[in-house]
Specification:
Layout lengths: L3 E5 L14 H11 L3 E5 L7 H10 L6 E3 L4 H4 L10 H20 L4 E4 L16 H21 L3 E4 L15 H11 L4 E3 L3 H7 L3 H8 L6 E3 L14 H10 L5 E4 L6 H4 L22 H28 L5
Helix pairs in contact: 1-11, 4-5, 8-9, 9-11
Length: 318
């Protein structure tokens, strides 16, 4: 069965576009490029889920996920689901619930949780004992999943690398699987990201096999944050494993990082300090860029399918 591909909108400022500023431009470009899904940013304060659902459906697309913002540089505030400070943790849980509501209104199936570093990173180890932080995080997961169940949303745990996530709390696929298995919640799964896995996992293939059917959504983010194929991610092996475990969800593609001039060209770009001049003329043609990304992935998938057909389905497997 062929993979389904979605576009991660939250990374569009890296190539000079902002879906909140130019929604129709982005959505139409994704549809024209051949994507069938589009993952929206988790910004409940600025987005009406029902309006976005109509926009996406009118373009013939679906919304697999609304991606929540957990990193301080991304969120603009500390959203620490593992915090021992009740007020801080409550604020993060409240944001998660609002994002669940946005996802449900937008027709999405998923939103994700991360155990992000606080505003002042704690490296190489957290200041509090890891088990206390894990217990705090478990409480947050339970509370958010209970609310998400009422909105028919599945919560996905996305491990961040240790420089962006709290070490020992949720930085590996194995830790994500442990939470899923321990809590036993029907609406809890795993969302791997190739970029973070490249830093944290001893073996990406082994980690994916271990997670197996718990994987519900997948982030294709190159190891150097640049164009797919320019890093050292083994896409053929990743695709082969996902097909081997029967993965039927979406593969969500990240935009590649480009030059500073292009990064600063996105209207209302949250990654660029306020007051910095932008130049929309510097950015690339979005349809052409998206077609190139999708073509690379689909060609990789075809190569893997041919190999599996010959060596596995063709009767060579003993």
């Amino acid at each position: 069965m062929a993979f389904k591909y979605s576009l991660q909108c939250d990374t569009l400022p890296w190539v000079g576009y902002n879906v909140l500023e130019e929604p129709d431009v982005v959505i139409q470009a994704a549809a024209e490029a051949g994507y069938t899904g589009i993952d929206l940013p988790g910004n409940p304060e600025k987005m009406d889920g029902r309006e976005w659902r109509k926009r996406v459906e009118d373009a013939g697309l679906v919304v697999p996920e609304v991606l929540a913002a957990w990193g301080y540089y991304h969120a603009g505030e500390e959203r620490n689901l593992a915090s021992s400070d009740p007020e801080k943790r409550a604020r993060a849980v409240h944001y998660a619930k609002d994002t669940v509501n946005l996802a449900a209104d937008a027709g999405a199936s998923f939103t994700e949780l991360c155990a992000a570093q606080p505003a002042v990173p704690q490296l190489p180890f957290p200041l509090e004992p890891v088990e206390i932080l894990r217990n705090n995080f478990r409480q947050s997961i339970r509370e958010i999943c209970e609310h998400a169940a009422s909105r028919d949303i599945t919560i996905l745990l996305e491990p961040l690398n240790t420089y962006e996530g709290l070490p020992g709390v949720l930085t590996t696929i194995y830790e994500a699987v442990n939470y899923v298995d321990e809590l036993g919640l029907d609406n809890l799964g795993v969302q791997p990201d190739v970029y973070h896995m490249n830093i944290e996992e001893g073996s990406i293939p082994d980690a994916l096999r271990y997670a197996g059917s718990r994987i519900k959504h997948f982030h294709l983010n190159e190891t150097n944050h640049c164009q797919h194929g320019t890093g050292h991610a083994d896409y053929q092996e990743i695709f082969r494993i996902l097909k081997g475990i029967g993965y039927a969800g979406y593969l969500c593609t990240y935009m590649p990082k480009t030059t500073q001039a292009i990064l600063q060209s996105a209207p209302g770009n949250p990654y660029v300090p306020e007051g910095v001049a932008t130049d929309a003329g510097a950015r690339p043609d979005l349809v052409g860029l998206l077609k190139g990304l999708l073509s690379f992935l689909q060609e990789t998938e075809r190569t893997v399918d041919q190999s599996r057909e010959f060596y596995e389905a063709g009767g060579w497997r003993r």
